[in-house]
Design brief:
- The chain has 99 residues and is mainly alpha-helical.
- Helices cover 73% and strands 0% of the residues.
- It folds into 2 domains: 7-49; 68-98.
- The chain has helices spanning 5-50, 68-80, 86-98.
- The N and C termini lie far apart (99 Å).
Length: 99
């Protein structure tokens, strides 16, 4: 089967019409190729920094809205009411005073 001059012309038009698209794809791929090292470096830095979470140290925060005096009065009230023993009272009293 031989190609007619008309079909060859159509093929040439199709190829020439596709050339700008190929050039655009080549430009995009070139830009992408230039971006890859920066992307890899960024991901590496992100991975390295994600390990900087404080080293697993226990952080304890003791926030109290009552004063030391109020805590001691409440403790004494519990002791006087018989809710806690004398040893428990002394132990808790020392904890409060050492804060």
């Amino acid at each position: 089967m031989t190609a007619s001059p008309g079909s060859a012309l159509i093929s040439l038009v199709v190829i020439l019409g596709y050339l700008p698209t190929l050039r655009e794809e080549n430009r995009v791929m070139t830009q992408l190729g230039r971006s890859v090292p920066y992307l890899v470096a960024g991901l590496f830095a992100l991975g390295a920094l994600s390990g900087c979470g404080g080293g697993g140290a226990d952080v304890k925060s003791d926030i109290s809205t009552t004063t030391t005096g109020q805590q001691l009065m409440d403790l004494k009230k519990a002791y006087d009411a018989g809710a806690i023993s004398e040893s428990e009272y002394e132990r808790e009293r020392k904890k409060i005073l050492n804060r």
